[in-house]
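dumping this here so i dont lose it
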């Protein structure tokens, strides 16, 4: 595992040095295949684990339907809207930062696509006492303690009325904050009330948990902490 991580880091550094900053498309491609901090593009990437890998926190059937039907539909509908609205080659964060200039269809589906790609990459097989390492002192400083952070984030997720997401974001001044958005909106969007770069997102649409948890959203949120991939979250920190 350690060896593999080192190898990946080496490949990323080599690729980045080789292509420089001008050829961002090539650079992004290297990241997309070699780094947990995958730069999100316009295609649905393969799920980085099996449908049953997150059990018992998230059941296999939920993952199969969520990834294969719900998320796939966002990607497909986003592609239709991108074509219809003649959106040219634009990096995803720039699209989201200008989303108010486009249709509701694009807002909903580009948000849906981005949010789910981030979500899949932010999870891994369950771990006992799952916790961050390099991010831990920052969470302690910002929220008081790791437990206090989890409580505040969970409260944001529980308190989101209807469908939406809870987020840990990095704001433009570098500080961290917890926020939530409705529907498939995202803190990168210009319409978001609280803006920042998502480090971690939790899907609290009923399609994310209803088969196993029914109305018990709080139980889903509690179980979800065991599958957070903190390495992926930490790699997003600037
Ligand atoms: Mn979802």
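and the seq i came up w/
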């Amino acid at each position: 595992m350690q060896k593999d991580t080192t190898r990946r880091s080496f490949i990323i550094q080599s690729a980045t040095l080789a292509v420089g900053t001008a050829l961002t498309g090539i650079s992004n491609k290297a990241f997309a295949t070699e780094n947990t901090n995958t730069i999100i593009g316009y295609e649905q990437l393969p799920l980085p684990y099996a449908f049953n890998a997150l059990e018992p926190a998230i059941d296999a059937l939920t993952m199969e339907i969520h990834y294969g039907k719900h998320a796939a539909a966002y990607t497909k509908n986003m592609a239709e809207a991108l074509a219809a609205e003649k959106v040219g080659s634009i990096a995803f964060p720039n699209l989201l930062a200008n989303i108010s200039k486009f249709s509701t269809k694009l807002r909903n589906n580009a948000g849906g696509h981005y949010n789910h790609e981030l979500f899949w990459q932010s999870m891994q097989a369950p771990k006992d006492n799952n916790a961050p390492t390099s991010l831990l002192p920052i969470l302690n400083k910002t929220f008081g303690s790791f437990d206090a952070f989890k409580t505040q984030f969970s409260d944001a997720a529980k308190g989101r009325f209807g469908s939406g997401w809870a987020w840990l974001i990095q704001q433009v001044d570098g500080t961290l904050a917890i926020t939530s958005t409705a529907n498939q909106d995202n803190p990168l969007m210009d319409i978001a009330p609280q803006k920042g770069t998502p480090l971690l997102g939790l899907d609290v649409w009923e399609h994310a948990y209803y088969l196993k948890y029914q109305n018990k959203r709080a139980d889903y949120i509690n179980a979800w902490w065991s599958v957070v991939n903190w390495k992926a979250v930490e790699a997003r920190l600037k």
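The radius of gyration is 17 Å.
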